[in-house]
Amino acid sequence: MALFPDGRRQIYLALPGDLLDAPASDDLGLLHLALVPAQSADASALLPAMEKAPGSSLTRAWREARHAAEARHIRQILRLGRLTACERTASVSCGPAWPPA
Length: 101
Hints:
Blueprint: E1 2-3, E2 9-10, H1 46-52, H2 57-82, H3 85-94
Antiparallel strand pairs: 1-2
């Protein structure tokens, strides 16, 4: 969830198995909240290991997960850009599958 200076909030939904990174900047006001029991892990110890072994399975999996997350983010931005204000409002209550194709 992102908290804006004017008090508004933006909720971002993540699915089980999605990787949530720490925000790139502390001034973004992002929070990670879970509606169901969830586990978190500090993966910072893995970064040096991935740098030492750029061809490892872990490094490839991490890179693929990052690319998939970025692709989802870009598709969502493009989808929202095509919608009218009314359609964007409806997509909040109906989910990202709205409007029907």
